[in-house]
Amino acid sequence: MGDWEIDLVIGKGHSGALVTIVERKTSFTVSRRVDDKSAKIVTAATIAL
C-alpha cells in the first residue's frame, strides 16, 4: 500500500478531463471530473481527492 499513480484523462474533443488516482497494489481508485486541464484546477481536484 502506498504506491499511487495520478493520471489526467482528456475527453473527446478536449471537452473536459478526468483526474484519476489509483493505488497500484490494491487498485483502489478515486476520480474527479474537471472542466479544463489548467494546473490550478487539476491541483485543486487532486487535493480534494
TrEMBL record:
Superkingdom of the source species: Bacteria
Protein name in the entry: Integrase catalytic subunit
